[in-house]
């Protein structure tokens, strides 16, 4: 089996990305501590043409060497905006007609394999702090909560892993809208 070369992959330029049709989804990072995690989310968001990333609270913002290290340039292609609080960011998204979806373990969560976005035009995915998760005040503002089932000894996945799984599923369901 032969790997594809960079030329064979046919990736678009940053300018082409900026002008391309996006998946009707926004990622919200709620006080994410690790800039490396932030960079990974930028890279995944680029791969699935996410509209924008909202960086909230203590979440690092570009330019940042650690973001750049894992984003590998995706911080140049994916639009982003900083909000002092996640509550403010979510309120702005709600006012713009987004369905707010927390990625969290909660009593009312839907397992990702049961997530049905058929009635949703545009989604905002809220990923929480690596230790505390999605803030309780933000959870109260969410329309849905999605959970990734886990079967090992640990109670959570790294945010970059969770983002990859959930963003892929949202892309899969919303890409043609």
Explain this structure:
With 177 residues, the chain is an alpha/beta fold. The protein has one domain: Alpha/beta knot (3-Layer(aba) Sandwich). 36% of the residues lie in helices and 20% in strands. The chain has a 7-stranded parallel beta sheet with strand order 3-2-1-6-4-7-5, with helices on both faces. Strand 1 (23-30), helix 3 and strand 2 (50-56) form a beta-alpha-beta unit. The longest helix has 16 residues, at 159-174. The mean pLDDT is 97.
CATH fold name: Alpha/beta knot
Report the order of strands and helices: HHEHEHHEHEEEHEH
| Integer tally of domains | 1
Largest sheet geometry: 7 strands, parallel
| CATH hierarchy: architecture | 3-Layer(aba) Sandwich
Shape: globular
Strand count: 7
Instruction: Label the structural class.
Output: alpha/beta
The total of helices stands at: 8
Name of the top-level CATH class: Alpha Beta
**Through-space gap between termini:** 35 Å
Mean pLDDT: 97
The percentage of residues in β strands lies in 15-25%
CATH superfamily descriptor: SPOUT methyltransferase, trefoil knot domain
Write out the strand line-up for the largest beta sheet, numbering strands in chain order.
3-2-1-6-4-7-5
In percent, how helical is the residue content?
Answer: 25-40%
Low-confidence stretches: none
Main traits of this protein?
single chain, 177 residues, alpha/beta, Alpha/beta knot, 8 helices, 7 strands, globular
């Amino acid at each position: 089996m032969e790997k594809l070369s960079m030329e064979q992959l046919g990736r678009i330029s940053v300018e082409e990305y900026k002008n391309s049709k996006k998946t009707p989804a926004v990622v919200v990072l709620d006080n994410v501590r690790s800039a490396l995690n932030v960079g990974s989310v930028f890279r995944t968001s680029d791969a699935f043409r996410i509209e924008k990333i909202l960086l909230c609270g203590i979440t690092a913002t570009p330019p940042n060497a650690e973001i750049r290290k894992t984003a590998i340039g995706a911080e140049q292609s994916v639009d982003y905006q900083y909000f002092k609080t996640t509550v403010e960011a979510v309120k702005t998204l709600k006012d713009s007609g987004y369905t707010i979806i927390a990625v969290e373990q909660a009593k009312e969560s839907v397992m990702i394999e049961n997530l049905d976005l058929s009635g949703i035009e545009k989604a905002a995915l809220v990923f929480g702090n690596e230790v505390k998760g999605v803030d309780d005040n933000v959870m109260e503002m969410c329309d849905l909560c999605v959970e990734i089932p886990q079967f090992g000894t640990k109670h959570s996945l790294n945010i970059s892993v969770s983002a990859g799984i959930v963003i892929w599923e949202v892309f899969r369901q919303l890409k043609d809208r």
